[in-house]
Structure formats: C-alpha cells, structure tokens
Design brief:
With about 170 residues, the chain is mostly helical.
Length: about 170
C-alpha cells in the first residue's frame, strides 16, 4: 500500500482515539515539567491531537507512512530522560509520573503497531465496509482508551489540581 492509499474507517477510528488519548496525557503532563520539557510535551501533544483529528476526518491520514516511527518518538524521549536521570551525577533526576507517561507510551505503541500492520499488509481499504463496523470500532476503542486514560490523567499534577480546588460541588 502506498502512503496515500485510503485506510479503512474502522482502523482510522482506533488510530485517532488512541492518538487522542496519548495527546491528552502529554498535554496534562506539560504544566508540571521544566520549561524545555514543557515545550517538547506541548509540541508532542499538539501534534498527536492534530493528527488524531485529521486521521479521523480524512481517508488518508497525514504522514501515515512515517507514523510507526513518529508515534514511538515520545517513548524514545521518555527512555532518554530516564537513562540520563539514572546516570546523572548531579543528584537531580528529572522524572515524569510513571502511570501517565506509561499509558501515553502504551497508546503511542498501539498507534505505531496498528499503522505498521496496515502499511505492511499493503492493501487499500475495502469499499463499503459499513457504518456499523466504524461505529463499533469507534465505541470500543473510545471505551478502552477512556478506561486507561482517565485514571492516568488523575495521576498528573493537572488532574490532582482539578479535584483539589477546595470547592464543594
């Protein structure tokens, strides 16, 4: 399959929802990060959220041939930060909360894996696969992503601040 070939709507739905979850987690992690990492997390989050919207809206997700590598970039950055922090002699270790970063990384791996399988398969999307299949894929993927993303969002500083505003609702 060429990079410009259409991707099945159900596959695009799963990809978009997973990228949306990862983008939301990276955006929630940004406010508590140091300035350089904040800019990087905001850029990654903006890219993931934009790609999620475009993947759902278009038959041909943008940069689809590069998505397996691009989706793994945040995981590589996290690994590099963890390695640098573990080997730092200064005693200051830059850490990101494990649960939110782990879930965001898991979602990025899902995006990379599905995109790699679609690219490797080399077939264009079948015509007329039906709206029911699209809606089912969208609903199941949204439920699965919400099940892992919502608790992870609660573990970020933004999530903690959202529930400790000292207001009784």
């Amino acid at each position: 399959m060429k990079e410009s070939a259409p991707v099945a709507p159900a596959t695009r739905a799963v990809l978009a929802v997973a990228a949306l979850g990862a983008g939301l987690l990276h955006a929630a992690l940004a406010p508590s990060a140091p300035p350089a990492l904040l800019a990087l997390l905001v850029a990654v989050a903006a890219a993931e959220l934009t790609w999620a919207v475009l993947a759902l809206a278009r038959e041909r997700p943008p940069l689809f041939g590069l998505i397996p590598a691009l989706a793994l970039a945040p995981l590589g950055i996290w690994a590099a930060l963890a390695t640098a922090g573990a080997t730092a002699t200064s005693g200051t270790v830059l850490t990101l909360p494990f649960l939110p970063m782990g879930v965001a990384s898991l979602l990025d791996v899902v995006v990379a894996g599905i995109a790699a399988v679609v690219l490797r398969r080399g077939r264009a999307a079948r015509e007329g696969t039906g709206a029911l299949r699209f809606v089912a894929a969208l609903a199941v993927s949204a439920c699965a992503v919400c099940a892992v993303t919502i608790p992870a969002l609660g573990a970020t500083d933004a999530g903690v601040a959202a529930v400790t505003v000292h207001h009784h609702h």
